Amino acid sequence: MKSKEILKQMTPYKPGKQIEEVKREYNLDRIVKLASNENPFGFSPQVKEQLPELITQLEKYPDGYAATLRKKVTGFLNVDEEQLIFGNGSDEIVQIICRTFLEPGANTVMAAPTFPQYRHNALIEGAEVREVPLNNGHHDLDKMLQQVDEQTRVLWLCTPNNPTGVHIKENVLRDFMENCPSHVLVVIDEAYYEYMKTEDHYDSIQALQNYENLIVLRTFSKAYGLAGLRVGYGVAAKPLIHTLEPSREPFNTSTIAQAAAIIALDDQSFIEETTNENAKNKQSLMSFLDENQISYFESEANFVLIHLPISGDEMFEHLLSKGFIVRSGEALGIPQSIRLTIGDKEDMAIVQQEIQQKLAGTAK
Ligand SMILES: *Cc1c(COP(=O)(O)O)cnc(C)c1O
């Protein structure tokens, strides 16, 4: 058997530690996962209440057009029905974009580090990946533009960026869109959109009126807390959506996922509570870090990239032994750091204490 050559150099996604596994290993009653930017407050109680009624006719295939969810999102964003494409998580939209636009001989431009699925899917399609290092956590948009040539098909912007949490400011992104050639598809991944509290961010949905080479990605996995159901979407001008549609599996979002997303979108008070609580706990974390002279990137998301005087792996191991799973910066391409998802108030107080103790113990 002969597989694609590139796959031989690639490794499958390595999931974070399983909670039950860690509990046994360290003899702990309780584990708190602050590693995958999941919502510590769960998901809308309305979903829990109303969903059972909506789970009928599971013997039937889902609505492949997601018509009801589509109508809902259309009204929410004030766009046309044909401007939307739904995916099994926005992960799948990334895959659909790569399947549609990338092939050997083409190239794609992205920041480094950023969300790893852009690179992963681009490589599988045989495209050349051009990575431009972040500048102090920010996308270096000038250098990214310099990497664009005739063969560039897709350019990825992640704002706020995973794993740094840094967002792209309004005028910076506006200038970029003006200068980026129209043969390049610009992807603006806004997985953490709901968490942004700054006013100084680009109105990407509005910008779709001016750019046919733009797609905006959003998801129900993060602030909406529905990561387990897998539903995300892309918003773009109609011709671009029509170009992407043949690459989409016909029944890619499930009946249950569609129904839950509809209810979740209606419960904006849950989003408000979640994001306000996140902002408060993030502010306390930043104050704690300031007081302890620990540096970090200013985050507009639900996680903070924290710089350490020791390796991220070492801090990861320490926190793991205390019942907290975080992401080590070594695994993310930023050594001597951890990426910490903002949890609830009580857990944040404990994890901060543990970070402080570890650093006190290693100070020379
Ligand atoms: C979590 C995340 C996604 C993927 O979300 P799903 O909708 O669950 O697939 C996409 N982009 C970024 C930057 C993320 O952090």
What report would you give on this structure?
The modification N6-(pyridoxal phosphate)lysine is found at residue 222. This is Histidinol-phosphate aminotransferase. Belongs to the class-II pyridoxal-phosphate-dependent aminotransferase family. Histidinol-phosphate aminotransferase subfamily. It comes from Halobacillus amylolyticus. Its cofactor is pyridoxal 5'-phosphate. This protein has 364 residues and is of the alpha/beta class. The protein folds into 2 domains: 5-43 and 269-363, Aspartate Aminotransferase, domain 1; 56-266, Type I PLP-dependent aspartate aminotransferase-like (Major domain) (Aspartate Aminotransferase, domain 2), CATH 3.40.640. It is built from 14 helices and 12 strands. It has helices at residues 19-26, 45-54, 67-77, 90-101, 117-124, 141-146, 170-179, 204-207, 238-244, 255-266, 268-291, 312-321, 329-332, 345-362, and strands at residues 32-33, 84-87, 107-112, 128-133, 152-158, 185-189, 214-219, 232-236, 303-307, 324-325, 327-328, 337-341. The strands form 3 sheets. The protein has a 7-stranded mixed beta sheet, with helices on both faces. Helix 4 runs parallel beside helix 5 (117-124). The longest helix has 24 residues, at 268-291. The protein is globular and about 60 Å long. The N and C termini lie far apart (56 Å). The model has no long low-confidence stretch (mean pLDDT 96). Pyridoxal-5'-phosphate is lined by residues 37, 89-91, 115, 158, 162, 189, 191, 219, 221, 227, 232.
